Amino acid sequence: MNEEIRITEAVTSIHDRAYLTIINGPRKGAVFPLAGEPVVLGSDAEISISLPGSKVACRHAGIRLLEGVWEIQDLSGSKVFVNDIPTTHRTLGGGEIFRLGEHELHFSFEPPTSMKTAEPADRIVMAIDLERGESNDQMQHLSIISGPGFLIGRSPDNDLSIKDPRASRRHCRIEVVEGEVMMTDLGSLNGTYLDGNLIQQAILRPGDLIAVGKTTLRCRRT
User: Considering Cα of 113, then 117, then 119, then 120, what sign does the dihedral take?
Assistant: First the structure.
């Protein structure tokens, strides 16, 4: 009996971490390490993994590690497609592909190759300077690094919180995807503009001018 318990503990400890990689869709290339804490996937900008799209529910699916077993559960009532099979609940063994709207995600216990060879997480790849407008905490710029994305908007818990009534609470996200700095509008009321053009998603270059409401931000090389 004791031997069986030890074997079970060894197996569960091997898979106490997992990785979710977006392999198709607007956020293609983004990697999310999972450390056992429950995560929620959906179109809501304030949840664990935000996946924009009209066919994605606000809280579409949840992934968790329960008693050593990874599982995915539908939260939307419309089912989640796992390996093209609609399901409401399924245990995960690694290698599965989830489909939520136009997004496809790969679940694995091994970090993807792109993550293994990526630049160190603290490497600054671009700076975003507040050129016109005011932040809520006097912050004047963002240093964009490889790793988690950065949120811009009115809410005080954004990475750059701006005092602008025309900005949404969660207005846009900036993140590094496959070596490129990507900006995505998060369904803002007044839109996100890049060099005067309304965009849903775009790659940022040094010198680009971002407009969020009446606030402008300038991209620069570091």
Answer: positive
Count of Cβ atoms closer than 10 Å to residue 125 Cβ: 16
pLDDT tens digits, residue range 130-154? 999 988 777 788 888 876 688 999 9
3-state secondary structure of 95: coil
DSSP assignment letter at 162: B
Task: Tell me the residue type at 6.
Answer: R
Tell me the C-alpha distance between 60 and 75, whole Å: 5
The answer to whether the CB of 212 falls within 8 A of the CB of 128 is: no
CATH topology of domain 124-220: Tumour Suppressor Smad4 (2.60.200)
Q: How far is CA 156 from CA 89, 164, 169, 217, in A?
A: 36, 12, 8, 18
Structure tokens given for 208: 């680009």
CATH class of the domain comprising 17-108: mainly beta
pTM given for the model: 0.54
